[in-house]
Design a protein that fits this description.
Helices cover 60% and strands 8% of the residues. Helix 4 packs across helix 16. The chain is built from 22 helices and six strands. A hairpin with a 2-residue loop joins strand 5 and strand 6. Strands 1, 2, 3, 4, 5 and 6 form a six-stranded mixed beta sheet that branches. The longest helix is centred in the C-terminal third of the chain and has 28 residues. By secondary structure, the protein is an alpha/beta fold.
């Protein structure tokens, strides 16, 4: 199959698909949590650096338009730009056909096209600055580049690498990969003052993370180090999840092509500048291999290694346009894109129209295990909770407008889909490792006073019993009002609204 210069068509079609999905499903657990970031700007957050919050601020016009689509608009725009950057890099290091194949491979990856290209996650700005950093590094390592161009590109790399870290701390692997390249293959770069200026620029850009952590006892470092420190036995389940996740997130077709491409490169069967090959391998394999190794002992998440596969995609694109069986293997690239379109189509059908739940059908934990519910119609509960509060107020049970929860999820969904639109008050009461950034948000909001009433809201697919959590904090906890949600006419999950009377903050001490 012959590829024509239709990069604009690739970008427009992929963007259209993402827009349709963005308009069709509610924000997921992490997405809605990052909207909370944007409502309360900080130099750093408990879980991540601040760029995802700033991205939301930009695309919602400073929170003027907070529909799900505008909140997700940043990743959609950046994904379109990323696709073009992949095309530019492929064209630069090989030829136009390699650029087009790279763009298609990028668009067919579930990680780059959906997780980081549609959902509002720290991965969205991270991946943009990661690919931009790769672009500048290809200029640095290109044979025959003038000293002036190399110096400029080093400074640009320092800036984009810093912004990548300010999106997600995994961005430090950009400097690790580039540092290994310099040490092993191009020590002459150590004589360039602009290399050190580049590193200094990165440090200046990421300094807010350090300053915030100094003020907060390095809580981000403590949290993330606890997630990766090797202090338990072999975790075979985590390793299998990491392997399977990498296989699925990068699209099974892409994954197979990546292995073929790596095999061809190590056999010296692909014509590409050795500088580019070495650079891209070092900008990908250290991150991927390290996370695979860690997954033997600790729980890891497959999307953490996602940025590392972008450099491998570029290598695979060069491999595909070089081999004699080009047309047959390029057909697999088109099949990979068809596959991701089908994933989006059937995903929308399942989220919005599957009758009932894919999870538990027991009333107490209805919907538990159904991952589609994280994206399903959270707006439904707003009017129902408003009705409960209205009748409690009218009957004289309570006049409170406080809602509390003990976990960042579902707290963020409740906060942004119910509390904010209804003009109510929300506070998270729980352990720091449970409420995460709400620990700081609580300090900016109205607080519960002794004797106040409050509602506790929980959902059946992640049910929590308030009597076990808050039994000592409130004098009385009423039986819940159960709000049943339906999908295609069948019960899908319950929201339970508990009225808790007479808050006693002394019990927290």
């Amino acid at each position: 199959m012959v590829l024509k210069n239709n990069i604009s068509t690739i970008i427009l079609f992929a963007t259209l698909i993402r827009c349709i999905v963005a308009l069709s499903v509610s924000l997921g657990n992490d997405e809605i949590y990052y909207l909370t970031y944007a409502r309360h700007l900080q130099w750093n957050y408990f879980d991540h650096p601040p760029l995802v919050a700033l991205l939301i601020r930009v695309t919602t016009f400073n929170l003027t338009y907070t529909s799900d689509f505008f909140i997700r608009l940043g990743p959609i725009i950046l994904s379109a730009v990323n696709t073009f950057l992949m095309y530019l890099i492929g064209n630069k290091i090989k030829n136009q056909q390699a650029g087009l194949v790279a763009a298609l491979l990028y668009s067919s990856s579930i990680y780059s096209s959906i997780i980081a290209g549609l959902f509002i996650m720290p991965d969205a700005p991270q991946l943009f600055f990661w690919i931009l950093s790769l672009y500048f590094l290809t200029v640095v390592v290109k044979e025959g580049s003038s000293s002036k161009i190399v110096n400029q590109s080093l400074l640009w790399f320092g800036a984009t690498a810093g912004l990548c870290v300010m999106s997600k701390v995994h961005g430090v692997f950009l400097w690790l990969g580039f540092g290994l390249y310099i040490i092993v293959y191009d020590r002459k770069l150590f004589s360039k003052p602009f290399l050190y200026l580049s590193a200094l620029l990165t440090l200046i850009i990421i300094s807010p993370i350090l300053l915030w952590n100094i003020e907060n006892d390095f809580i981000t470092y403590t949290f993330h180090s606890n997630r990766i420190v090797i202090n338990q036995g072999v975790n075979f389940n985590s390793f299998m999840r990491e392997c399977l996740g990498g296989f699925l997130y990068n699209n099974p077709m892409n994954y197979g092509l990546i292995f073929l491409g790596l095999f061809a490169f190590f056999k010296n069967k692909v014509s590409l500048s050795l500088n580019y090959t070495r650079l891209f391998l070092l900008m990908s394999l250290p991150l991927i291999i390290l996370l695979l190794g860690l997954s033997f002992f600790r729980d890891t998440l497959p999307h953490w290694s996602g940025p590392g596969y972008t450099a491998l995609i570029l290598l695979v694109a060069c491999f595909l346009v070089d081999i004699k069986t080009n047309s047959r293997l390029v057909n697999l690239v088109w099949i990979a894109n068809i596959l991701i379109v089908l994933v989006c189509f059937f995903g929308l059908l399942f989220v919005n129209f599957y009758p009932g739940t894919l999870g538990s059908n027991k009333e107490i934990n209805l919907g538990q295990g159904d991952v589609t519910l994280d994206l399903y119609d959270w707006n439904y509960f707003k009017k129902e909770v408003k009705r409960v509060c209205y009748w409690d107020n009218k009957s004289g049970k309570t006049s409170t407008n406080f809602i509390v929860n003990n976990k960042w999820f579902p707290a963020a969904h409740i906060d942004n889909y119910i509390v904010q639109p209804l003009g109510m008050n929300f506070v998270a009461i729980g352990e720091l490792n449970d409420i995460h950034t709400y620990f700081w948000i609580n300090q900016q909001r109205k607080v519960l006073k002794p004797g106040d009433d409050a509602y506790f809201i929980t959902i059946s697919n992640s049910f929590k019993d308030p009597n076990l959590i808050y039994g000592k904090l409130f004098a009385e906890i009423h039986s819940p009002v159960v709000i049943c949600q339906f999908r295609s006419g069948k019960p899908v999950r319950n929201m339970l609204v508990y009225l808790m009377k007479d808050f006693n903050p002394e019990a927290l001490k």
